[in-house]
Design a protein that fits this description.
The complex is a heterodimer of chains A (405) and B (308). With 405 residues, chain A is mainly alpha-helical. Chain A is 69% helix and 4% strand. Chain A has two domains: 253 residues, no CATH class; 117 residues, D-Maltodextrin-Binding Protein, domain 2. Chain A has 15 helices and four strands. Chain B has two domains: 223 residues, Rossmann fold (3-Layer(aba) Sandwich), CATH 3.40.50; 58 residues. Classes of the chains: A mainly alpha (405), B alpha/beta (308). At the A-B interface, α1, α8 and α15 of A face α2 and α3 of B. Chain B: Belongs to the ABC transporter superfamily.
């Protein structure tokens, strides 16, 4: 159609001929995202290191010498403080609560004797530990000493009592089986990527289009430049389509940059955060998968661009348009997030829910679990809804109430 | 040839406001028509109806045979439209703006360049052609908007307050261009303004509108005739006889005014006064300005003379 090319070209030129726009649209968000995720990764890494380096303050009450020796042998470093009576225990508990101390280990009096003299039917001696789970240091001390060291100490005492602990063990599970995990590595890495990437793709496609899309229509109305276009020989449908196509391209490029950056940097982020997901995200996609992803991204860009342009037609200013678009953004955010917590394989009906189906489809493509009917249903439905919006946009562009106000 | 024909054109907005009431008029090609009235009189609504931006509630119009509400895009192909609210792109230079609109109006690239340069020169914007529009003054913006409206060599030109915000020199330039185009290229100009003195300088025919109703249409002579008292006779004289008090109004010491219809009445009045012993030092016939006519028509409408 005549005029689409001119409007399309004008909108793209507006972005790509302006260094500030290129920077703010494509570069700044990515730099911010990488910077932010690097910062979060480094902070998490720093926190882990700090927790590892921290020497916990542990109050010991009636601790047998064999336990302190066991801790020394286990190379657990801690600052020991000995308490002997109930008053001191009470004071120590107060320090745990305030975060000044990290753990209290309270043994029964004559613990070693009670263990040694144990007869069947006797009450078992109880070791009590106290910690504050709302304090990171206290939680780590509890895990190291109460969970791990005391369990090791109990196994050691048990070995002393029965001679061979194995006699108390009926069987083990995977104690020397290094091949327990049988999986398709590509599928597994796709699934790991599929946890977050689909959500980010669907969200970033919208986010990339949102501010520019509202400006393309409501901004032009606000600045009076739309009025100049409306008195030109261009058909209003051409103006609308030119804008939607330009917005599709811009949001697509913006999302692509985001995704490439994320795939490239994600191992660094997740690795820095101490997770093992980073090593799992090594995407290797077949040409078919890439084609499917591209098709999904194009149709989703079309839907988003149409939705944003449609909503913006009703606004007289960018500010007003942004407030109209925000509920759609939140809805997309929620629909996208739903796929991150899906455990069951989605049925055909799930692929009928707009936007959600695209996130599922991208997830399915990445993990090679999507079926062709599911893919085609997603693609077709997205195109149809986008086309309906397009029809409504043209109607709205022809409305004198909306465009001549 | 009839350029614009409007019959029974009315517009009632969704708010219930009746902005235009049964507008009937026609314009001939080459006319520079001043559509005059105060703010809110219905001028902009009329322009929007005639350019297809609004659909009439009743009635219809045709611009060179094209119905604006049925074929707006076709109409815009041969009409240049400059409205108060239509702006151009601040991030583009004046020249780039014209090239973009040249493309939009379907001009070949080379043709658009040539036409843009010609208009920039004609409107004395050549020095600023590579400056971003954002740096332009109001007057420069108005002139560039006019250049945009003229870019595709339209046969009809709709101008809504074209001199709003312009300095006197710019007004003179714009006037000059409008008159020249009408004369040399036969462009029909439909010019809306509330500045009646300005309109009198540039227009050949006028339509006076108030509260959505067309009060009168015609050239200056026809409009003066409509108000009956087309001329004001101004006298500097002494010893005016008491018998003349009913005709002459004293406006200052030794200065009197009298409403007359034709210049031909003056010799008889002067002779009569002289015969009755009046010493006459100065006699002037002042023609009614558009402002005088407009206010006279408004006054008469208020008095219930609906048919002017």
């Amino acid at each position: 159609m005549d005029g689409i090319k001119q409007i399309f070209g004008k909108e793209l030129a507006r972005i790509f001929r302006d260094k500030k726009m290129i920077f703010s649209t494509f570069i700044l968000p990515v730099v911010l995202m990488v910077g932010l995720m690097t910062l979060v990764g480094n902070l998490a890494q720093g926190m882990m290191k700090d927790l590892e380096d921290h020497e916990p303050v542990v109050y010991m009450m009636d601790a047998p010498a064999s336990f302190t020796s066991f801790l020394e042998m286990s190379e657990i470093t801690y600052k020991e403080k000995v308490i002997t009576d109930e008053a001191q225990l009470k004071k120590a508990k107060a320090e745990i609560k305030s975060g000044k101390a990290d753990l209290i280990v309270e043994f029964p009096v004559d613990f070693e004797k009670a263990v040694a003299d144990y007869q069947v039917g006797d009450n078992l001696p109880q070791v009590k530990t106290y910690y504050n789970p709302s304090e990171e240091y206290s939680g780590v001390a509890y895990d190291q000493i109460s969970n791990q060291a005391l369990e090791g100490y109990r196994q050691a005492l048990l070995a002393d009592r029965v001679g061979d602990v194995s006699t108390l063990t009926v069987f083990t599970v995977n104690s020397d089986n290094d091949e327990a995990i049988i999986q398709d590595e590509e599928k597994a890495s796709g699934k790991a990527a599929g946890m977050m990437l689909p959500y980010f793709i669907t969200l970033l496609l919208f986010a990339g289009a949102m501010s520019i899309g509202t400006d393309m229509v409501a901004g032009e109305k606000e600045r009076g430049t739309m009025a100049s276009l409306l008195v030109s020989p261009l058909k209003r449908s051409s103006i609308a389509l030119g804008k939607v196509f330009a917005l599709m391209v811009i949001s697509g490029i913006s999302a692509l940059i985001y995704v490439v950056t994320m795939v490239f940097f994600m191992p660094n982020f997740t690795g820095a955060a101490g997770g093992d997901m980073g090593s799992a995200i090594k995407l290797s996609l077949s040409p078919g998968q890439i084609g499917m992803l591209v098709a999904l991204m194009i149709t989703l860009s079309f839907l988003y661009a149409s939705l944003i342009v449609f909503v913006s037609v009703f606004a007289k200013s960018v500010k007003e348009a942004s407030s109209y678009v925000m509920p759609a953004y939140i809805l997309i955010l929620v629909l996208g997030m739903m796929t991150m917590f899906t455990t069951k394989a989605p049925g055909m009906e799930s692929f009928m829910i707009p936007v959600y189906n695209n996130t599922l489809a991208i997830q399915g493509v990445l993990s090679s679990t999507i079926t062709m009917p599911q893919f085609l249903l997603t693609l077709g439905e997205t195109i149809v809804i986008g086309a309906v919006f397009q029809f409504l946009i043209v109607k709205a562009f022809n409305s004198e109430k909306l465009m001549s106000a | 040839m009839v350029a614009i024909e409007a019959s029974n054109l009315s517009k009632v907005y969704d708010t219930g406001k009746e902005a235009l009431k049964n507008l009937d008029f026609s314009l001939h090609q080459g006319e520079v028509f001043g559509f005059l009235g105060p703010n809110g009189a219905g001028k902009t609504t009329t322009i929007k109806l005639l350019t297809g931006l609004l659909t009439p509630s009743t009635g219809k119009s045709q611009i060179l045979g094209v119905d604006p509400s049925a074929e707006p895009a076709k109409l815009h192909g041969f009409c240049g439209i400059m409205t108060e609210h239509a702006q151009m792109y601040n991030l583009l230079s004046g020249y780039e703006n014209l090239l973009f609109y040249g493309e939009v109006f379907g001009l070949e690239k080379e043709m658009a360049k040539a036409r843009a340069l010609q208009l920039l020169e004609r409107l004395e914007l050549t020095d600023a052609m590579y400056q971003k529009l954002g740096t332009y003054s109001t007057g420069m913006r108005q002139r560039l908007s006019l250049a945009r409206a003229l870019l595709h060599s339209p046969q009809m030109l709709f101008l809504d307050e074209p001199t709003s915000g312009l300095d006197p020199e710019s007004i003179w330039r714009v006037n000059d261009l409008i008159k020249e185009m009408a004369k040399d290229e036969g462009i029909t100009v439909f010019l809306c303004t509330h500045q009646l003195r300005y309109a009198q300088e540039v227009c050949s025919t006028y339509g006076l509108i108030a509260e959505g109703e067309l009060l009168a249409k015609g050239n200056l002579r026809e409009l003066r005739a409509l108000t009956m008292d087309a001329l004001t006779l101004e006298l500097k004289a002494e010893n005016i006889p008491l018998t003349e008090n009913s005709h002459l109004e004293k406006v200052a010491e030794n200065r009197y005014e009298m409403k007359i219809s034709e210049v031909e009445e003056i010799p008889a009045i002067v002779q009569r006064l002289a015969r009755n012993g009046t010493s006459i030092y100065e006699v002037r016939a002042l023609e009614q300005s558009l402002e005088d006519i407009y206010f006279a028509l408004i006054k008469r409408k208020g008095e219930g003379h609906d048919h002017l």
